[in-house]
Specification:
alpha+beta; about 290 residues
Amino acid sequence: MRMSSWIRQHVAALRVLLALTVITGIVYPLAVFAVAQIPGLKDKADGSLVEVNGKTVGSSLIGQSFTDADGNPLVQYFQSRPSAAGDGYDPLSTSASNLGPEQIVDSGPEDTNLLTTVCARSKAIGELDGVDGARPFCTPGGVGAVLSVTGPRAVDGEVDHPTKVVSVNEFCSVSPDTFIPTYKGVKVECAAEGEDYSIGRIIPIRGNAPEISQVPADAVTASGSGLDPHISPEYAAIQVARIAKERNISEADVKDLVEAHTDGRTLGFLGAPRVNVVELNIDLDGKYPFKG
């Protein structure tokens, strides 16, 4: 008795399913795995893991935070760029901060937006590495220099005769002082938590900081993935003196290590020169152990 065409079609489909399952589910993955174990490819295929004395200490593809349990920077190490991935460089929470350039007004002392976040980081790095951390539109205290100016507005939206001026990112609960005492003859007030100052004209104040800060942009902003293990050569350069002092070695020795871990532009024209912080710090520990 001949099988109906319906049964023959389904038997053929089952055979194709089984064949493709074997090819794509078993043969192909095993072939890829075998090729990945070829010398020269194995390390990359396994995650570019870095080992010290037989112990895996990280990956050259994923950054790390070189801080203590309280989040304070360990002064004997080069510091990585900030990370918004979980608690920092968490591969399971890879993300950016999603803060934008127009987010310049804080909700409270602990709930800061992009401008104050950048200002605070720049101030802290300046103090850590002995450079000027001042940036345009930042107060000397490390928050965004932004005013809410209330009063009658001209046709162009400007407030020529303010009736009230508030420094929206300097909260009275922290300090009553403000980065400038007056604005257009009106006393500048500190901000009260929970108050909405959007009724006023929001005005960022540039201040007298240099156009280009001594603290590079990558030192105060996170990467899109939050996992970038690299920093710019400029950020590495401002850390050299601190590293040399803490490890009691010459700055020339530290600069040589930085140079050894600096990569140029990919293919000579893509991206920017970069320093792998993870590999640099591991090499630093190996050649010049910290004795503090």
